[in-house]
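Milestone 3.1: sequence recovery, worked example.
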């Protein structure tokens, strides 16, 4: 009967360390993937700001956006404005300012406004009309999450981009009747003007 040849001990000694090296490399890759993979769940949990950690104000309130922002972990976020409240989107270039006005007209067609800070670093100023006393608040959306501010139309308000990139925000009006373009009063807001 022919004898079968057993592998030499030198063959085993060469392949076993190689096997352990490959096994170690696979385990290392799995651990790296587990700890450093992009976590969509955690990033989406932080997408909306927690109002309890934001500065409080006597002139505006924070709006809860959970019913207006819908998150799909494979596609991202969609903002659906409330029924019958057409929203508009705007941007502010670095160091740019929007606002220094309030919304008023003889028919009082607007009762309030909602500003939704979507991306960037903002300085938000708000005051009563014809007053040089104002509140300044800063929001960094990448740190806080999306912030929604609601205030009455008679409040003077302005936003400044205090970051280096373009900021993005959305807005809609709380209207008492249908209007196409709201009137703005800049004259009453000169004392609080943000520049």
């Amino acid at each position: 009967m022919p004898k079968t040849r057993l592998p030499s001990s030198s063959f085993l000694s060469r392949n076993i360390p190689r096997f352990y090296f490959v096994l170690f490399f696979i385990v290392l890759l799995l651990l790296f993937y587990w700890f450093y993979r992009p976590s969509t769940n955690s990033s989406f949990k932080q997408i909306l700001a927690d109002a309890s950690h934001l500065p409080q104000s006597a002139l505006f309130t924070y709006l809860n956006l959970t019913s207006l922002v819908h998150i799909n972990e494979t596609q991202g976020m969609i903002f659906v404005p409330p029924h019958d409240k057409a929203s508009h989107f705007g941007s502010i270039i670095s160091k740019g300012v929007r606002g220094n006005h309030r919304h008023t007209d003889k028919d009082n067609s607007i009762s309030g406004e909602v500003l939704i800070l979507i991306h960037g670093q903002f300085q938000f100023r708000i005051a009563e009309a014809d007053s040089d006393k104002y509140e300044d608040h800063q929001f960094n959306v990448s740190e806080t999450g999306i912030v929604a501010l609601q205030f009455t139309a008679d409040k003077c308000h302005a936003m400044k981009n205090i970051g280096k990139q373009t900021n993005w925000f959305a807005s809609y009006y709380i209207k008492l009747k249908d209007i196409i373009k709201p009137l703005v009063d800049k004259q009453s807001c000169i004392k609080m003007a943000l520049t």
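Residues 9-36 form the longest helix (28 residues). Residues 38-45 have pLDDT under 50 and may be disordered.
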